[in-house]
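Q: I have two molecules that I believe assemble together. Could you output C-alpha cells for the complex as a whole instead of separate predictions?
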Amino acid sequence: MRVLILGGDGYLGWPTAMHLTTQGHDVVVVDNYLRRRLCREENVGPLFEVPNLHERVRIWESASGYKIPVFIGDLTQWDFVQEVFTSFTPEGIVHYAEQPAAPYSMLNRRAASLTLQNNLMVTANVIFAVREFSPEAHIVKIGTMGEYGTPNIDIEEGWLEVEHKGRRHTFLYPRQASSLYHTTKIMDTDLLWFYVRMWDLRVTDLMQGPVYGLFTDENEEHQSLLPFFNYDELFGTVLNRFVVQAVVGYPLTVYGKGGQTRGYLNIKDTLQCVRLSLEKPSDNGRLRIFNQFVETFSVNDLACKVQQVGSQLGLNVSIQSVENPRIEAEDHYYNPANTGLLDLGLEPHYLTDEVLAEMIEAVLKHRHRIQEHQIYRKIKWA
Amino acid sequence: MRVLILGGDGYLGWPTAMHLTTQGHDVVVVDNYLRRRLCREENVGPLFEVPNLHERVRIWESASGYKIPVFIGDLTQWDFVQEVFTSFTPEGIVHYAEQPAAPYSMLNRRAASLTLQNNLMVTANVIFAVREFSPEAHIVKIGTMGEYGTPNIDIEEGWLEVEHKGRRHTFLYPRQASSLYHTTKIMDTDLLWFYVRMWDLRVTDLMQGPVYGLFTDENEEHQSLLPFFNYDELFGTVLNRFVVQAVVGYPLTVYGKGGQTRGYLNIKDTLQCVRLSLEKPSDNGRLRIFNQFVETFSVNDLACKVQQVGSQLGLNVSIQSVENPRIEAEDHYYNPANTGLLDLGLEPHYLTDEVLAEMIEAVLKHRHRIQEHQIYRKIKWA
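A: Yes, here they are, computed for all two components at once.
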C-alpha cells in the first residue's frame, strides 16, 4: 500500500515509517521539523542526538534495503500540500503532523496560537487534499484518549447511545479535554466527522493514550534509528520522564494526588495499531474510532512501578508529590473501552518489570547526557 | 457598561451597536469589512447600499446624539487586538466577528480555509485578550442552533445529563453541524469551554437560530441606518431571501422536501437577547448557554406564509422544490428548549402576518434593485 506519513520525523512518525516498509508498504515521509524547532527555542532536547530525516532514511536504507522518500515542508501551506499529493498519490495517510505536547500548548499565547493554527490547518489541508487528489485514500488520524477527559460514566469507543425523555440518539461521544493541545484534537475530530459526512471520506481516528518506550523491531540494533526520547516537562511523556528521573536520582514528580488514571501503550503497539488500521481500512463515509491503549494506570501506579524496578537495578528512587501545575481531576472514575483494535488483531505488549528494566537500562547508557534543569520547570496551566 | 462589539459592521453588529447606546452603554465597534469584501469577490450584494462604518456612526450621532468610536482592522492579528483592548478596556464583549455564511464556507477550499482560520483565530484572540487585558470582562459569543444539528432527542439548552450503565454525567450537549461554518461554531464552543474551565472566564454562548427582518427601534426612520439585507444564496438567510423572491416574482426555492425545521427570531429579539445577556452576565468560570430563538418553522411553513401574505399584497407567489444542494435531513424530529432567555426577560416578537407584510413592503420599495442572478446559484455542499 502507498502510505504517506505526515509528521514522519516525530517520536511515533519515524518508527511507523520504518515498520511499514518492513511490512511491504511504500512509504513517503513528510515533516517540517517543527518539534525540533520548538525544542530548540525552549532549550530542551532528547536524551540522545537524533539524525535529521534525510540521514535517518539513508541509515535505514543501508541497514534494511528499504528506501523512504522525504518531503521537508510545512503542511499548513497549500502549495506544499499540493506538491506532496501530486508527487505521490497515497492509498493511506497517517496524520501525525501536529504540535504534540500538552504543556507546550499551555506555555503562553504564542505557543497556544501556534498549536491551534498548525494542528487545525494541517488537518483541514489533509482533508482538502484527499478530496482533491485521492478521494479513496484512507486517513488514519492520531487523536488522543485525552479528548474524552474523565467523565463519570464509561468511555465508549467513539460513540454514545443516549436515551433521553423516551427517545434515543447515537452521538459522537461528548468530549472535554484538559489542555489546549487535547482541545485541538477534539476540534480535529469535529472537522473530520463533518467532512466524512459531506464527502464520504474514509477515516480512522485513533484515540491514543500516552505512549512509552523506545525500542521497536526495526531499531533495536541501531542507536541512530531510535526515536526522540524527551524527558523534559514540555515534550516528555510521563513514564519516559519517570525513567530518566529514576536514573539521575531526581525524585519522581507526581502532580498532586497522583490518582490521574489514563490508558497507556508501548510504542510497539502504536505501530501495530496504525498498521492494522491501514491494512483493514474504514469504509467510505464512515468515521471509525478506536480507543488505542492497552492497560490503565494511575500516575501513582507508574511511580511505584518505576521505584520498584529501579530499586532492583540498584537505583535509589524517591517519589515526591508536587503542586499540580495542571487543572485536572486527581481522583476520578475511569473505565474506557478498548476492544476495537484487539478485534482487528492487536497483540498487546504489557508494561512488565522486564520492559521497564529494559527502558531503565537503555537510559542508564546515556546517564551522562541528562540535564537536570530540563526535568521540572513548573509550567502552570492557569 | 463599556461594550466592545466585534463585527460591528455586520447584519447584527450594527443594529446591536445602536441599540446598546440607547440603553445607556458605552459602545465601541470593530470590523475589517470582511463580509463586504467577500460579497464583492462573489459578485453579490445587499438589497440597498449600506454606508461604511465611519459614515454610519456619523449619521447615528447626528440622529441620536450618541457617539460610537470605530476601529477598522483584522482581529486575527494580535497587534490589532492588543491595540483595541489597550485603547478601550471592555466590561462586555459581543463577539460577532466571524465569516457568517454557511454556503460561503462550502464554496471551495479557499473559502473553507478562510472561514476556519478567521473564525477560530478571532475567537482564540478574544480569549487571550480577555485573559491579558480584562479578565473580568464578560464575553457574549454568537453561536448557532446549527451546532446541535437535528438529533432524534430533545435539544436541551447547552448541556445534557446522560445516564449510562447506571452512572450519570452532565456533558456539553453533543454537537453535529451541517456546514463548515456551523462546524467552526462548534469548535469555538470547544475552545471557549476549555478556557472557561482553565482561566475562570465569564462567557455566554448564544445558540442563535436564523434571524429575519431589518427594522429595529433605532433605524425605522433612517434608511441609511438599516442593516445589510442580503437575498443571495451565499449571504442571505432563508426568510429574507423568500421575501425578495416573492417581490420579484421568482419562485420560492425550497430545498428538497422542505421539512427542515429550525428556530427563528426577529432581529429585534437578537438585540434584546444580547442586551439581556450583557446586563445579567455569566459568573466567572461558567459557560452559560442559551438557545436563542422564538418559534420553530419548517422551510415549507415559511414558504407558505410568504405565499399567503404576498398574495394578500397582490403578489403572485409560487413555490418550487429544487434539488437540495445541502446534505441535511429534510424530515426530522426537532424539539429544542428555549426558556433561558425568556427567564432573563426576553419579550418575543412573533412572525405575524403584519410583520411579514411590513418586510415585503420594505423590499417592494427596492424592487428595481433586485438582481435575479444573485438569487439562486446552485452552490453544492458535496
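A: One point stands out. Chain A touches chain B through 48 residues (CB under 8 Å).
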